[in-house]
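so ive been stuck on this for like two days lol. basically i have the seq below and the ligand is guanosine-5'-triphosphate, smiles is in there too. i just want the complex predicted, nothing fancy, no docking runs or whatever. if the output looks off dont worry ill sanity check it later, just need somthing to start from for the group meeting slides
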Amino acid sequence: MSLLIGVIGKTNVGKSTFFTAATMVSVSIANHPFTTIKPNIGVGYVRKQCVCKEFGVRDNPQNSICINGIRFIPVTLMDVAGLIPGAHKGRGLGNKFLDDLRKADVLLHIVDASGSTDAEGRPVPPGTYNPIEEVVQIQNDNENSCY
Ligand SMILES: Nc1nc2c(ncn2[C@@H]2O[C@H](COP(=O)(O)OP(=O)(O)OP(=O)(O)O)[C@@H](O)[C@H]2O)c(=O)[nH]1
Ligand SMILES: [Mg+2]
């Protein structure tokens, strides 16, 4: 079974955009908070140098693909609804999607490094929101939730 990666973060920061780029699964993307409600699931591939070239052998992979000495290892991605401050108290879409995330082996936090969305995910001029706050907010909300 492939690794399950949960794509998390504040709402309206590009989680679904990243998910679509990584999996080629077409999902709703829009410049307003809470576009994603139900989780999106797709498969992406991690590219790694295969050992077959180094050992000079012909391989026969069972769970991945080897193309010209490059291994494509499947990973499952889950794109979920975004968080805003107080989600653990039920604000925004609350924490109900955390039930889906419970199955994830890894959480991948997408951050709007350009600072062009406020704490609630509303568009603001680039550089006017501190992305560090976003990192701390998501971390605190996860710690406060029952995840
Ligand atoms: N400039 C810029 N815009 C981006 C980037 N990634 C996403 N966007 C835009 O940001 C907006 C929100 O993108 P989504 O992928 O829907 O964001 P999300 O985090 O999934 O949003 P929710 O599902 O509502 O929580 C869209 O208008 C995207 O085109 C990026 O790297 N740069
Ligand atoms: Mg989304």
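The chain has a mean pLDDT of 91. Strands lie at 3-8, 40-49, 65-67, 70-79, 106-109.
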